[in-house]
Amino acid sequence: MTKPLHDKLALVTGASKGIGAATALALAEAGTHVVLTSRDVRALEAVEDRIHDAGGASTIAPVDLGESDGIARLASAIASRWDKLDILVISAAYLPALTPVTQIDGKQFSQAVTTNLLATQALLANFDPLLKRAEAGRVIGLTSSVGKDPRAYWSAYGATKAAFDNLLDSYAQEVEKIGNVRVAVLDPGATRTAMRAKAYPGEDPKTVKGPEVVGNRIVELLLNDYPTRHRERVE
């Protein structure tokens, strides 16, 4: 039986673990050929093995999103093999230490800005041509509630996510009337990930949902489609 997304190509950042890996697995299950990217080659290979063992299709493309030309090289490599990109899932993120504003570590803050903000702009800029060549290009960004609702000690992360949301919303408005690219921003809510464990070390992980819930919701959104500038929280 033909799977619903059998003719689609997706790029998932942060695909080596957590929500990124779960999303890649769910997309592959739906028939998508998934390009998996992150810095961790071994973890990417493990996700790819799971996809292939289940009969899915994927390609690993290890990239450090913080490298000055890493995203441009990734886009060039994908464009040399495929003529379009149907789905871009921006899942990679960096969580700096939770501290008061006055004690933010400059190096960690810089890494958060690079990973969560600068890389997002570079992804949109470099993959925009491929997304526009797709019949219905779709961008889904994973955000956080602290981007919209500031919280004590979360300012370094929250500030980058507020800017992340702004970039995606602005891009959605810019492409809305000139093509078929649509943008959605999802807040995954409390989800069992390594980032969550880092932020809440005393929490019982069994009390929050697994990342596959978010991955499955992303596939559901793609199958049912959504209006551009769609926003939701996954409960």
Write structural notes for this entry.
- The protein has 235 residues and is α/β, with parallel strands linked by helices.
- The chain has one domain: NAD(P)-binding Rossmann-like Domain (Rossmann fold), CATH 3.40.50.720.
- The protein is 47% helix and 14% strand.
- A seven-stranded parallel sheet has the order 3-2-1-4-5-6-7, sandwiched between helices.
- The longest helix has 28 residues, at 106-133.
- The chain starts with 8 loop residues before the first strand and ends with a strand.
- The mean pLDDT is 97.
Reported for the largest beta sheet, the result is: 7 strands, parallel
**CATH class category:** Alpha Beta
Average pLDDT reading:
97
Give the number of DSSP strands. 7
Give the key terms.
235 residues, alpha/beta, 7 strands, 14% strand, 7-stranded parallel β-sheet, Rossmann fold
What is this structure's SSE topology?
Elements: E1 9-13, H1 18-29, E2 33-37, H2 41-53, E3 57-60, H3 70-81, E4 87-90, H4 106-133, E5 138-142, H5 145-148, H6 155-175, E6 182-187, H7 194-199, H8 211-224, E7 230-233
Parallel strand pairs: 1-2, 1-4, 2-3, 4-5, 5-6, 6-7
Helix pairs in contact: 1-2, 1-8, 3-4, 4-6
